[in-house]
Amino acid sequence: MVLWSLVLGLLLVVIVGYLFLPGLLRQRRPQEPPLDKGTVPWLGHALAFRKNMFEFLKRMQAKHGEVFTVLLGGQYFHFVMDPFSFGPILKDSRRKLDFVQYAQELVLKVFGYSPMQGDNNMVHSASTKYLMGDGLEELNEVMLDSLSLVMLRPKGQSLDAGCWYEDGLFHFCYNILFKAGYLSLFGYTKDKEQDLLQAEDLFTQFRKYDLLFPRFVYSLLGPREWLEVGRLQSFFHKMLSVKHTQEKDGLSNWVAYMLQSLREQGVTPAMQDKFNFMMLWASQGNTGPTSFWALLFLLKHPEAMRAVKEEATQVLGKVRLEAEQPFPFKLSALQHTPVLDSVMEETLRLRAAPTLIRAVCKDYILKMASGKEYLFRQGDMVALFPYLSVHMDPEIHPEPTAFKYNRFLNPNGSRKVDFYKAGKKIHHYTMPWGSGVSICPGRFLALSEMKLFILLMVTYFDLELVDPGTPVPPVDPQRWGFGTTQPSHDVHFRYRLQPAQ
C-alpha cells in the first residue's frame, strides 16, 4: 500500500511538473516580445481568453503594445497587432511559419477527418476551378433555384402571399442559407418534398453542434456534451456519406472533384464521409450568421434599406419569384451592385472576427514596419486578430462601432479601397476572409450566395421588426475568433411574400 502511494505520488509530481514547467521556467530572451504568463501555471491566461477573447486582447494591447506573448493552456502565442507588419507573416508560406499543421490538428479533433498531404492544395485547386469564373456562374444558378425553393417553401409548404409570418431573424437567415447551400452543394433526390424535410433535420442537428463548437475546440465540454458531440458527428457522417451522395442528382462539381481526388489517393469511404462533414461546416457555418447581421443592420437603418432596395430594383427588374420555376436573372448583374457590396463589406467588418494562426517551425525574426525586430521561438504560435487591430481601429475606420452602409463607397459610387493609418495607405483594411495561404477559398461563393439572399428578401418580401426599437444584440463572447460572430440572443421579425402585381 505504501509502495503504491509512493508510485502514485511520484506520478502526480511528474504530471504536475510536465504541465506547469512551461509556465514556471520560461523567461523572456533578448529580442523577444513582452511575455505575460498570467498567474496560473500552465493555464496562464486561458480562462480569461476563452471567456472573452476580444476584451482580453484589448487589455493586453493596452498593457504591452503592438506585439506581446501570452501563455494559453501550455502554449505560447505571439499576437501581432500592427497591421503594417502583417505582410511578412502572411507571405511566409511554410518556410518558418506553417498554417497547415495547425489546421490539420484542428480538423482531426473537430471533424474526425485525418488530412492527407496535399489536401490544402487540392481544396484550393477545386475552389479555383468551380467557385470562381464560369464554375461559380454555374453553381450560382443552382444556388438561386435552391434559394427560391427554400424561401417559398421553408417547411415544405408554400407561403401564402400577403400573409404575415413571425420568426427569429437569426434562425430564419441561418435556416434558409444552410438549407439552400446544402442542397446546392450535395444535390437533390427526385423527391423535393423529402429533400426539404431532410435539409430541415440537418439544420436542426447542425445548430446543436454549432452551439457546442466553441467550447468543443477549447475542450471545455461536460461528460454529457462530449457524448452529444459524438452522436452528432456520427449523424453527419451517416447523412453526408458518399453512399448517400452518390444516390443524388446534381452533386456540385466542387464536391465531386474533391471526392474524386480523395478516392484516387486511396482515402477510405468512411474518411470521405468525414471530409464531407468538414466541407459542409466550412461552406455553411458563416453565411447564415452574416446574412442575419446584414438584414438586421438594414432594418435598423432605413436609409440603407432604401438604397439597397433601389439598387435591387434596377438589378432584378420586374421578374417574379416562384417556387420550382426558373428565375430569369442574369447573375452577371451581381458584379454591378456597389451599394450592396458596401453593405456586405461593412457587415463583415463589424461582425467577422477570425483569428489567423501560424505555427513557428523554426526560430523566426519578424521585422516590424517600424524597423524593430522580434524573435519568435520554434514551437510557439503567431496569431493575428484583425477585428481588433484593423476593423475596430478608429484611424482606419472612423466611428468603428457604427454601421455606415456607404463606408466602402466613393462619392461617385465606385468601391472605396483607399484607407489610411498614421497618414500611410494600408493594404489590409479589412480581413473577414483571412489572408495569405489561409484565405477562405470559398469566399466568392459565400458572398454571391449572401447577396442573392439579401436581394431576394428586400425585393419580394415585406420585412419589419416586431419591436422597431429593439437594439442590435451584443455578440456572444464565445464566438470571438471563430469566423462570423453570432448574437447573444435572437431578434424577432415579421415577413410576408408580396402578392403578384
Automatic annotation (TrEMBL):
Q: Which residues bind substrate?
A: 109, 286
Q: Could you provide one GO biological process annotation from this protein's UniProt record?
A: lipid metabolic process
The alphabetical list of record keywords is: Endoplasmic reticulum, Heme, Iron, Lipid biosynthesis, Lipid metabolism, Membrane, Metal-binding, Transmembrane, Transmembrane helix
Binding annotation for heme: 440
Cofactors: heme
**Alphabetized Pfam families for the sequence:** p450 (PF00067)
The membrane spanning regions, by residue number, are 6-25
**GO MF terms on file?**
heme binding; iron ion binding; sterol 12-alpha-hydroxylase activity
Provide a GO CC annotation, any one: endoplasmic reticulum membrane
Please report the record's description of how this protein sits within the membrane: Single-pass membrane protein
Where is the protein found, in the record's own terms?
Endoplasmic reticulum membrane
Family statement: Belongs to the cytochrome P450 family.
Record's protein name? Cytochrome P450 family 8 subfamily B member 1
| Gene behind the chain | CYP8B1
